Amino acid sequence: MSLENPFITTFYPQSDLFCGREEEIIRLVTIVRDNVNSILLGPQRMGKTALIQKAFEKLRQKNEFKCFYIDIHATENLKEFTRCFYDEISDSYPEKNVGNIDLDLPKQNEQLLLSLFDFLDKQNIKMLIAIDEFQQLVKYPEKNTITILRQATQKLKNISFIFSCSNEHLLNDFFSDGKQLFFTNFDLLQLGGIKESVYSEFIIEKFEKNKRTITEEAVNFILEWTRRHTYYTQSLCKRMFETEIKEIDIEHVHEECGRILLENESNYFIYRNLLSPVQWLLLKAVAKEEKVYHPTAKQFLMQHKIGTPANVQRALDALLSKEMVFAAHDDNKRYYQVYDCFLSRWLENLD
Ligand SMILES: Nc1ncnc2c1ncn2[C@@H]1O[C@H](COP(=O)(O)OP(=O)(O)OP(=O)(O)O)[C@@H](O)[C@H]1O
Ligand SMILES: [Mg+2]
Fold first, then answer.
1. Which of 126, 153, 157, 241 is most buried by a 10 A CB count?
2. Tens of pLDDT, residues 17-63
3. Which ligand gives the minimal distance to the CA of 20?
4. How many domains does the chain fold into?
5. Best substitution site from 7, 9, 45 to test ligand 1's pocket, by max atoms within 8 Å of Cβ?
6. Same domain, yes or no: 138 and 284
7. Is 13 in the pocket of ligand 1 (CB under 6 A)?
């Protein structure tokens, strides 16, 4: 009978199942204590939400802050945003009237937001509000949402914000038309992978705790193959744990990786049917290169026979919007990578 799997992929990992991120937690907590707002930017499934929850845990332990978490992924307009916000706040203050305004009147959404912020600020306790999936705001029909938020938040004395965002491409929209004013004095925290040595130690320790072993070579391969993209690393480790093999070596990991790709293959073929030929070619090329710094460079286009720079730019924009590819930075140099690490590994094996 196997013990509970220590590699979590579906929810916030509690205490000893949470790996690393010490520097990031200290940085977030410091930012909040200094009353500065922050943007937490990182690809999907890298661990932004888990990091926010961990920072909340730290801040709550010392009773320093009242923390609110709002996930706006499912919201489509300002009304739903306001409703989401209202529900979270009123849950915390069931005995108080937080501002009973009819949400069906568009103008009153703004008023309600203003009164909610005003209400919170007057509680005279430091607060942290994390708004997760912040890029969703770009998709609202109300194009002035950022301006409304700016008006609602600029006079606050006791409230700090974390805006968490997974789509840098969409975030760029916020930096046009003077909207960037909103982000003046924001601290930007770009979330990458968990440190290699820390993750490696974590994985080995979890197997040893269950009286099993995994070789260093196998762990290094897991971290490299999954690019330390947290969800994918966790998934592969979870699968290795499920095999119940007592002494895991690199061959066992190779076999499991092969099984993952085979299981997903039918979905990958569906993606091919949904993309245009140029988009598919570009996706494959990005996978083969692993990281692409100059997608319209002559050498890249020739090597992968993709087409003209203009075609590629269009295809790249489409892949970014469809979240098949993401943009990130290495030492301030922007690069592109296939989002789904397993899909990327499958693509790189194609002709
Ligand atoms: N530090 C960590 N230690 C262990 N597991 C983690 C850690 N961070 C994240 N995870 C796991 O990885 C998965 C992805 O993390 P999370 O949901 O926080 O990513 P995200 O960046 O918020 O993604 P999305 O943009 O899709 O919401 C989670 O299900 C969680 O179980
Ligand atoms: Mg998240």
1. 241
2. 999 999 999 998 888 888 788 889 888 999 999 999 999 988 888 87
3. 1
4. 3
5. 45
6. no
7. yes
